[in-house]
Write a structure and sequence with these properties.
By secondary structure, the protein is an all-alpha fold. Helix content is about 70%, strand content about 0%. The protein has one domain. Helix 15 packs across helix 17.
C-alpha cells in the first residue's frame, strides 16, 4: 500500500471512529466510549510517530477541520453542560442578568424569560448554583439564544460554529508561532488531530476553545511586540475562562515590573469592560459565590486532593473539602509563583513550557479535573517538548466510567490508574530531559 493510500485510510478510519463516538455513543456506555477513544488515539499516534502527513501538511490540516465539521449536527453526548449554556443565553437574550439568580430560585420566582421553562430546567446539572461562565461566554450564549430562541439543536449548532471558528483560528496561530520558533511544521498536528480536543471542544462545546484561541493569540502578539493588543487578547481569554490568570506570574520577569503592571492593568480592564453589562453588587457576589462553591463542594477525577481527602477522613472522620479545596488552590498558586521565580531562561519556548507546567500544577492540585480541562495543555505541548499530556489526553477518558450509574459514582481504582500512568510518563520524561541536558553540559569539557 502506497503512502497516499495509507494517509487516506487513516483519515477515513478517524472520521468513522469520530462519527461513531459523536453520534452513536451514550456517555453511560463507558466501554464503547473508551474503546473508540483508544482506537482514535492509536490512529493519532500513528500519524505523529510515522510522520504520515509531514509532506502534506495542508491536507492534514484540512482533515483536522473536516473532522471537526463532521460533528456540526451532533448533540453533545459526553456532557450536559450545554443545557446551562442555553439557559444562560436565554437570560442574556431576554435582557436578564444570568448572574442574579440560580435556576432553582428562578423557577420559584415571578420572573419570566422566554424559553427558560421546566422542560429545559430539568436537564440542568447544577440548578442550585449560580452561573460560573464568564462574560465572553455569556455573549456567545446570548447571541445564539437571540437567533435560535429555545431551540436546543439550533443553539448547539450555532455555538458550535463559534467554537469551530475559534479552533480554526487556533490552528492558524499555532502554525505561525511554530514558524517563528523554527519548529517542524507538522508539530501542529499534535493539537490539530488530537481526539480529545476534537471531541470535547468541537463536539461537546466547552468554552476552553475560546480560552485557548485568545491565549495563543496573546502569546503571538507578545512575540511580535504588540504588548497592549496582547494584553487585550489575554483579557478576552480570562473573559472566556478564568484559568489563564495562572500564567501571569511568568510575564513579570519577562516584561519588567512597570510593563508587567501595565499589561496586568489592561488584562483587568478588558475583563471589567466585558463584565459591565452584568455589573451589579449582587451579580459580583453571586459570581464569586459560584466560584467558591466550585472549590469547596465540587470534586471529580482529582489526584493530590483525593490523597488529602483520604488523610482527612482518617483524621477527622468526614470530608474536609471545605478546608482542603481552598488549601489546594493556595498550594497551586504558591507552586506557580515559585516556578515563575525560579525560571532560569526567558525565551519564548521557555514561556510556553512554563505555561504548560503552570497548567499542570493547577490541575494536579485541583479538586475537579474534567477531560476537557486537559485541552489547553495539549495546545501548549506543541511547543513545550513534553508529551506526557498526550498520554493524559487518553487516560483522562477513564473518568467517564463515573457515568455508568445513577447517581454518578467514581471508580477510584481507575482514577489511580490514570494518575499513576500519567505521573510515570511525566517523571520519565523530565528525568530523561534533565539527563540529556547533563550529558550535553559534560561533553563540553571532555
Amino acid at each position: 500500500m502506497g503512502r497516499s493510500a495509507i494517509q487516506a485510510t487513516v483519515a477515513v478510519l478517524m472520521l468513522v471512529g469520530l462519527l461513531w463516538l459523536g453520534y452513536f455513543t451514550l456517555r453511560s456506555d463507558f466501554l464503547q466510549v473508551f474503546l473508540l477513544f483508544l482506537a482514535l488515539f492509536i490512529l493519532y499516534c500513528l500519524v505523529l510517530w510515522k510522520k504520515l502527513f509531514n509532506d502534506k501538511l495542508r491536507i492534514a490540516l484540512g482533515i483536522a477541520v473536516l473532522l471537526r465539521l463532521s460533528l456540526l449536527f451532533m448533540t453533545p453526548n459526553l456532557s450536559d453542560d450545554y443545557f446551562r449554556f442555553i439557559w444562560d443565553g436565554l437570560f442574556v437574550a431576554g435582557g436578564r442578568n444570568p448572574f442574579l439568580m440560580t435556576p432553582s430560585a428562578y423557577i420559584d420566582s415571578g420572573w419570566s424569560v422566554p424559553g427558560a421553562d421546566l422542560s429545559l430546567f430539568r436537564h440542568l446539572n447544577s440548578p442550585d448554583y449560580y452561573s460560573v461562565y464568564p462574560p465572553f461566554c455569556q455573549y456567545i450564549f446570548g447571541l445564539s439564544a437571540r437567533i435560535c430562541g429555545a431551540n436546543i439543536l439550533a443553539n448547539v449548532i450555532l455555538i458550535r460554529a463559534f467554537v469551530l471558528a475559534a479552533e480554526v483560528g487556533t490552528l492558524a496561530l499555532l502554525y505561525k508561532i511554530g514558524q517563528r520558533l523554527r519548529m517542524p511544521p507538522d508539530a501542529i498536528l499534535i493539537y490539530a488531530l488530537n481526539p480529545l480536543v476534537i471531541v470535547e471542544l468541537a463536539g461537546n462545546l466547552h468554552p476552553e476553545a475560546f480560552m485557548i484561541f485568545f491565549v495563543v493569540l496573546a502569546v503571538y502578539l507578545l512575540m511580535k511586540g504588540r504588548q497592549s493588543l496582547s494584553a487585550v487578547s489575554f483579557g478576552l481569554s480570562v473573559g472566556a475562562k478564568l484559568v489563564p490568570l495562572i500564567f501571569l506570574p511568568l510575564l513579570i520577569r519577562r516584561l519588567g515590573r512597570a510593563r508587567s503592571m501595565a499589561y496586568f492593568a489592561i488584562v483587568g480592564g478588558t475583563f471589567v469592560v466585558l463584565f459591565l453589562p452584568f455589573l451589579t453588587a449582587t451579580a459580583i457576589f453571586n459570581y464569586l459565590t459560584g466560584l467558591a462553591v466550585y472549590f469547596r463542594l465540587f470534586e471529580f477525577n482529582a489526584s493530590v486532593y483525593y490523597l488529602g481527602r483520604w488523610i482527612g477522613y482518617l483524621i477527622t472522620g468526614y470530608n474536609v473539602i471545605a478546608f482542603l479545596g481552598p488549601a489546594m488552590a493556595a498550594a497551586a498558586f504558591i507552586s506557580i509563583v515559585l516556578l515563575a521565580v525560579r525560571e532560569k531562561t526567558l525565551t519564548w519556548v521557555s514561556l510556553l513550557r512554563g505555561m504548560l507546567f503552570c497548567g499542570t500544577l493547577y490541575l494536579i492540585f485541583s479538586t475537579t479535573v474534567h477531560p476537557w480541562y486537559i485541552t489547553p495543555l495539549i495546545a501548549l505541548s506543541v511547543f513545550a517538548g513534553y508529551r506526557y499530556v498526550l498520554v493524559w489526553s487518553l487516560f483522562v477518558v477513564l473518568s467517564y466510567s463515573s457515568y455508568q450509574s445513577q447517581p454518578y459514582l467514581e471508580n477510584l481504582w481507575l482514577v489511580a490508574a490514570e494518575y499513576v500512568i500519567v505521573g510515570a510518563c511525566m517523571l520519565s520524561e523530565m528525568v530523561n530531559i534533565k539527563w540529556n541536558d547533563l550529558l550535553r553540559k559534560w561533553t563540553r569539557y571532555v
